[in-house]
Amino acid sequence: MEVINTIAALKSLLGPIKLAGQKIALVPTMGALHKGHVSLIEAAKAEADIVVCSIFVNPTQFTDPKDLEKYPRPLEHDMAMLNESGCNVVFMPSVKEMYPVPEHWHIDLGPAEFLLEGEFRKGHYQGVTQIVKKLFDAVGPDLAFFGQKDYQQVLMIENMVSYFDLPVKIITCPIIREDDGLAMSSRNIHLNAEDRKHAVVLSQSLEYIRSYFEKAEDQSNSDKLHELEEAVK
After folding, report:
1. 193 Cβ partners below 8 Å, 6+ apart?
2. Which CATH superfamily hosts domain 2-176?
3. What is the tens place of the pLDDT at every residue in 29-71?
4. CA nearest 37: which of 191, 150, 204?
């Protein structure tokens, strides 16, 4: 596994690989890796010849400086996990490497940018698409792998790819969950016992709805929805 810190070194390494016609996959991360990230790397290995995993805590997507400051950065743990997963290249640039000069970034991501999480984190998805575009430019991947957990983020990235007409295929992989059903996330370490109890309600509710609809095959959708509405009151 090679660890690269500069765009120039990364391009020098990947250039001959691309010329040889080998397929390159990118798994972008902000570190604090878990089994969800490993599942993305495994999916990438099945589709590509070379897997590049980036670790970069991107400042432009944080709307709260305190959130950026407390984001977990267990580098030794991450390196061990990447090595065990069979990742070929780790790209770990500095902030100065990715943002050598101040720059303005704003593209039309569509109305979905301002819904759900976007309603509460103004500018978040502009920052996300900004860094993903920079990573795509640095790596030049044929494929890029993301998790369904960040569904809205994936939609924004797909819109960005369409906006710039980039030659990269976005592949979305299933959510990997903890034993209690909570979606694996680097930020789960910030949850106390009470927070976690509330957090799993969503996955439990979705699982209940899924199993209910599967069992009630002989009912119309309107009847199913009515019974569900009564059940959750």
Report:
1. none
2. HUPs (3.40.50.620)
3. 999 999 999 999 999 999 999 999 999 999 999 988 888 998 8
4. 150
Per-residue tokens: 155: 């939609």
Quote the CA–CA distance of 58 and 37 in Å, as a whole number. 17
pTM of the model: 0.86
Strand-strand pairing, 169-173 and 50-55:
unpaired
Token pair of 14 as six digits: 């990947």
* Both tokens assigned to 232: 């959750």
Retrieve residue 210's tokens.
Answer: 């899924």
Active site residues: 37
Strands 50-55 vs 89-91: parallel, antiparallel or unpaired = parallel
DSSP state of 64: S
Q: Would you state the pLDDT for residue 206?
A: 77
Taking the C-alpha atoms of residue 26 and residue 43, their distance in angstroms, rounded to an integer, is 11
CA triple 139-141-145, angle to 5 deg: 110
Residue of 140, 135, 133 lying closest to 23 (CA atoms): 140
Residue 226 pLDDT: 63
CB atoms within 10 A of CB 36: 21
Task: Locate all alpha helices (DSSP H) within the chain, ordered by sequence.
Answer: 7-19, 35-47, 65-69, 75-85, 95-98, 117-120, 124-139, 151-164, 193-215, 221-231
Beta-carbon contacts of 58 under 8 Å, excluding residues fewer than 6 positions away, are 30, 98, 127, 128, 130, 131
In the chain, where are the structural domains located? 2-176, 191-231
What are the pLDDT digits (tens) for 124-138? 999 999 999 999 999
